[in-house]
Amino acid sequence: MGTGTGTKFNLPHRQTRWFEQSSIGGMSPLGKIISYFLLLFWSLVVLFPIYWLCITAFKSMDDVNFGPVYIPWVDFTPSLHAWRNIIVDDMADVASAYFNSIVIAFFSTIFCVMVGSLAAYALVRIQYRPKFGSIMLFALTLAAACVAIGRWGVDWWLGIAVGLAIFFFLWRAAVKERFGNGQMSVVVGIFLVVAIVLYFSGNFSPDFEKHGKTASIILALVVVGWSAAHWINGRVGNSDILFWIISQRILPPVVVVLPVYIMFQRIGLLDTHLALIIAYAVVNLPIVVWLMHDFIATIPIDLEESAQLDGSSRFRIFWEIILPLSRPGLAATTLLTLILAWNEYLLAAFLSTSKAQTLPIMVSAQISQERGIQWWNMSVVIILMIIPVIIMAFLLQRFISKGVLLGAVKG
Amino acid sequence: MNTSEIAPNKDRPGPVAPAGSLFSASKRDSAWSEWVDRQSRTLFISPAVFLILVFSIFPLVASLLISFTRIRPRVGGYQIRWVGLKNFKKLFTGSEQSHLLGTMEGGISLLGWTAIIVVAALLLWWLYRYVRQEFKVVGFIGRIVTTAAALAFTILFATTLLSGRQFGTMPMTLVYVLFGCSLQFLIGLGLAYVCTQPIRGRAFFSTLFFIPITITPVGIAYQWRMLADMNKGPVAPLWEWMGLGEFAWGSLAWPARSMVMISDAWMWIPFIFVVMLAALETVSRDLTEAAEVDGAGKWLIFRDITLPQIAPVAGTILLIRWIEGFKLVDIPNILTNGGPGIATETLTMHSWTQWRTLDFAGSSAVAYTLLFVSVVICVSFFNLVIRRYSRRQ
After folding, report:
1. I need a labelling partner for A367 at 20 to 30 A (CA). Which of A77, A139, B1, B301 fits?
2. Are the beta carbons of B266 and B220 closer than 8 angstroms?
3. How many angstroms separate the CA atoms of A4 and A160, rounded?
4. Does A116 have pLDDT greater than 90?
């Protein structure tokens, strides 16, 4: 990319043209002025809040409360009292939150990257043809059995047995033997007619009044599910699984957090590190799979094939060939996941109360203090909180500029 | 490597272990490793699938079921009663309506009606054009859903905002995502574009603009609360001088909403900037320079050459931004605590507040409303915009 401003092609005796560029790939002087103005303005927007955060950490209480002061040693004398408050006096609270955050972010990241890159590798190299239709059919018949049990008081064992029998029959008939489309439509048609007759049978015979409608709806559902299963089986491939995993990211965490909360409460995991580690890993899994899938797909297959011929197992190939080769992508993904886990707020607010409290929760708890927010102390805590992220982000920036993220976004 | 061993097992990665080869397994555990290797197909992917099924899909279904019940915590468990659609009725037409949607009583103003009619006409024209030009059943159904959602959102805004009434958490989330996040995207793209211009210090500026990404959202919220403080903040003297010393942004709806958007923009623009910069740098120089030789202006080049090339990436980034935007909770929670009133409360916060009052079912119902809104918008955007641009490539 041309970096020169192109002025050397400009003839010296001409007057400056403000609106025209001096050469191809260059810029007009006015354009340059506007660009510099924008860049400098945005630099101010970026830097000033950070500057203010840093000097507030060294202000005394009076310096904050009686009007703004801007420049250390000129407007006010910097003091370390806020740092002493946080590091010496509040040591226990801050240290435990810091420790929790580190443990949770670290282990959830390792867990998530491990599971995610295994799945990403498998989705690149192994062809999957899950019998998704069969699984759906199974779930559907089981659900129908549950409705039958709940609604009509059918015996547990009988309900399950009949459900399984119906599933097995349908599965043999359509999914395994692979009916042709003509046969399929005849059978489905017969079932649907039966369902319709059942639905209106209440009008003719009072015995059916009660259950006829429900039974017909269940029957129709199972039959529709069956034909859907017939259609879906064999059509679901790797790209669908990948899309399914990545699309989990659309799910707002608040939708799933309540059942997860109840689940963890029942097994006594609430307010433990393990609960948050698992929750964070699941939330970040789609990102890991997405980024790693794209990265692993660029690794040539030849190396793996020769290793395979040598008789090494897939796990070995993964561990000794894929992981070392995908190091840049792995690093970027790990750092991104670490930052996300470090900053996570909502899940921590739901799933931890005191013992496993992380830094963001501790910081946000300061808001309800009776004496108002102690800005100087807050600034110190926030600075302590962002130091690890700054270190990670500057490592990350090298990888992002290599286009790891871009590649994934394009894919 | 022993070439004589290669022949038979190309399809089945079997345990052919020639002695002395680099990757051979030791003999002692060969039976075990053979078994593991045969299962590797399943073993590789099942942890991820298991995690998602147990902690994502199962809670998703459970949450839906909970939203149809009344659930109360009790000693040693929960008391659950099936109430059907009651929770949703309460949200959309009952006592929670003003919280979720806004104040609806009192009819729609003239401006509101105009907006509804204009949008409805546009949507109908768009549908008509689709039916005339290319018709597919699935595409048509999808477009019907999109149209219905767009019309519903328009009516929502017409009855609340355009008729001069308060609005609830759902319109707030929509304003925040559709307006705030899109604005962030435009600023990020603009900055990235300026940074690809041939000027000195580009590398320096692009490193500098990356910095805010390192600051944690909770910290950003505090930092902006501090900066925007009218008495002790850095701009206080300026406010004083302008005679606005008594003005408190936190007590008015729109200034508070803008503060939430500004803080969030400050946090997210770096991300958009970094990716868009990388995308802009891949745009081929030849085309733009050829166009310049032909005398095309900067704007024309950007619109007709650069933009089509970065469109797929731009669309995806905007989609990611919207997806994450729907989840916004930490910044308004700390910056304004949802106030004044409920002016800056997002849907996630709404659900959270319900949870804190132990109204679990109500919380699930709000969460499902959020899920529905975000899925309709994101899927529509993906199918109608991103797919189209990728196909054109």
Report:
1. A77
2. yes
3. 77
4. yes
Q: How far is A119 from chain B (nearest CA, A)?
A: 5
The pLDDT score that the predictor gives to residue A219 is 75
Calculate the dihedral angle through the C-alpha atoms of B54, B60, B65, B69, rounding to the nearest 10 degrees: 110
3-state secondary structure of A228: helix
Cα–Cα distance list, B196 to A8, A35, A44, B46, B284 (Å): 21, 10, 20, 44, 12
Q: Choose from A46, A71, A254 for mutation: most chain B CBs within 10 A.
A: A254
- Quote the minimal CA–CA distance from B105 to chain A in Å: 30
Cα torsion at B163, B169, B170, B175 (round to 10°)? 70
Question: Quick one: pLDDT band at residue A284, thresholds 50, 70, 90?
Answer: very high
Q: Are A333 and A292 in contact (CB under 8 A)?
A: yes
**Residue A260 to residue A212: CA distance in whole angstroms:** 37
Tell me the sheet residues that pair with B72: B79
Most confident of the following: A120-124, A398-402, B39-43: A120-124
Of B73, B54, B118, B8, residue with least CA distance to B359: B73
Counting one residue from chain A and one from chain B, the pairs whose CB atoms sit within 8 A come to: 322
- A 10 A CB-CB count for A48 gives 12
The mean per-residue pLDDT over the stretch A172-186 comes to 67
Write down the pLDDT at residue A8.
46
Chain A residues in contact with B207 by the CB 8 A cut-off are 397
Q: Which CATH superfamily is domain A91-128+239-410 in?
A: MetI-like (1.10.3720.10)
Instruction: Report d(CA A179, CA A233) in Å as an integer.
Output: 12
List all residues 6 or more positions away from B127 whose beta carbon is below 8 Å from its beta carbon.
B143, B144, B147
* Residues of chain B scoring pLDDT < 70: 1-30, 244-246, 391-393
pLDDT digits (tens, 9 = 90+) for A133-163: 777 777 777 777 777 666 666 667 777 777 7
More confident residue, A89 or B124: B124
Residue A201 has pLDDT above 80, yes or no: no
**Residue B257 contacts by C-beta under 8 Å, 6 or more apart in sequence?**
B172, B175, B176, B343, B344
What pLDDT was estimated at residue A396?
66
Average pLDDT, rounded, for chain A: 79
In terms of CA atoms, which chain A residue is nearest residue B234? Answer: A68
Instruction: Please determine, for residue A405, whether its predicted confidence score (pLDDT) is greater than 60.
Output: no
Helix, strand, coil percentages, rounded to 5, for chain A: 75, 0, 25
Q: Which residues contact B44 (CB under 8 A, 6 or more apart)?
A: A118, A119, A121, A122, A126, A314, A318
**Side chain identity at residue A9, one-letter code:** F
Residue B168 tokens read as 């609830």
Nearest to B23 among A64, A248, A311 (CB): A311
- Most A-contacting residue of B26, B44, B196 (CB-CB within 10 A), to test interface: B44
Q: Do the Cβ atoms of A1 and B281 come within 8 Å? A: yes
- ipTM confidence score: 0.84
Please say if the pLDDT value at position A4 is more than 50. no
Give Cα separations from B54 to A178, A281, B335 (angstroms): 31, 13, 34
Domain boundary assignment for chain A? 27-89, 91-128+239-410, 132-236
